[in-house]
Amino acid sequence: MIFSNTAVIIGKTFEYNYQYEHYIKDATIVVVLDSAIQQFLKLDLPIQPHVLLGDFDEQIDPEIVRKKFPGIAIVHTPDQNKTDFEKAIEFLLEKGYKKIISLGLTGRRMDHTFNNIATLGKYNDQAFIQIIDDYSIIECISRVYNRKHKKGTRISLLPLGEVTGVITRNLKYSLMNESLALGRRTGSSNEVAEDGEVVVTIGKGRLIVMECWD
């Protein structure tokens, strides 16, 4: 997929390393969620945040933020019925962004991680959204997944609710018009059969696709 504008969302568990450089370098806008701004204030990270967004329930001083990052937009979103991740996605959708890379959205609090991954299913028809960490690239599909991978790459297929009509190509354990349901049957820890294109199509539902490594 090719998009002219890419947004990056940075969450609380983000820790800068070289593998994230090209995502941030290619981004048109970088949105930092709430208390994740603290490490930007403490460390000289090679990242220019453009927006600080959140409910700011951890007493962030906007003047300190503006002093270090002149021109940063501070967006207060107090709605407690949505997570900061959801609010950031909706903020970016309103500005027309169709590709969103999310960093620092997994780890530490498993409830937060689970909810953030499930959130992909809420917005995947509106934008191409990935959650990326040190060990995985996570996205949601409602129609088709099409990527090139090397042989042996681990690919997990995890349904949100029930997914029917799952068909895979170039995975070691093939699925042919089958159903997956969380708590009953998933496609965890499959792997790429041969170097080349992996295709996953589904008939109905939302399917989380994870490329995983140790």
Largest sheet: 13 strands, mixed
Percent strand equals 35-45%
Shape: elongated
Assign the CATH class of the largest domain: Alpha Beta
Indicate the CATH architecture of the largest domain. Answer: 3-Layer(aba) Sandwich
Percent in helix = 10-25%
Total number of strands: 13
Order of helices and strands: EHEHEHEHEHEEEEEEEE
Radius of gyration, taken over Cα atoms and rounded to an integer in Å: 18 Å
Specify the CATH homologous superfamily of the largest domain. Thiamin pyrophosphokinase, catalytic domain
How many helix segments?
5
Average predicted local confidence, pLDDT: 93
Query: Unreliable segments (pLDDT under 50, ≥5 consecutive)?
Result: none
**End-to-end Cα distance:** 26 Å
Secondary-structure-derived class: alpha/beta
Explain this structure:
The protein has 214 residues and is of the alpha/beta class. It folds into 2 domains: 6-134, Rossmann fold (3-Layer(aba) Sandwich); 141-212, Jelly Rolls. It is built from 5 helices and 13 strands. The protein has helices at 21-25, 37-42, 62-68, 84-94, 110-123, and strands at 6-10, 29-33, 51-54, 73-76, 99-103, 128-132, 136-141, 144-149, 154-169, 176-181, 187-191, 196-201, 204-212. The longest helix is centred in the middle third of the chain and has 14 residues, at 110-123. The radius of gyration is 18 Å and the shape is elongated. It starts with 5 loop residues before the first strand and ends with a strand. The model has no long low-confidence stretch (mean pLDDT 93).
